[in-house]
Amino acid sequence: MVKQPVKVLIADDEPTMLSLMRSILEGHDDYFLDLASNGVEALQKVRERKPDLLITDLKMPRMSGEDLTEEALKLQPDLTVLVATGNGTLHGAVNLMKAGIFDYITKPFQVGDFLQSVDRAVDKIRTTPLSNDSLAIIGALMTALETKDPYLKNHSSRVARLSRQLGLDLGL
pTM of the entire structure? Predict the structure, then answer.
């Protein structure tokens, strides 16, 4: 099975960091890289190109990384976001994680740590079989099917609940 390239958008206002992250990742044939030098440019690219992974700095001109992350996740809720910053705090990192970012790495970072974080994000992207939109469509179809037959009423939700509990009991 051929893997689709992962679309990666890197947003950083520091040309040196932007170049470094691009250099680290451009050797991977399965990544399609796109760059933005500020949050406004990055948000426009999220709208137009629908990346799979957004790597962003927090302190950028025109739009901060926090605002970019918030707006990008509104546009694309299944977007995987990695924050790489030298200006973060523990409190800020926790808030960003609660807001939906996947990982947080501080600058200056070790190349191996950066690659490991990106690899984990790509693994998540590739192992998430369905987007939230796809799940909503499937749910609507199942509800429509179940309304046709009283015997099937809530069958899918019961099976889902039991499957989830079984998975939790098995430590998955």
Answer: 0.71
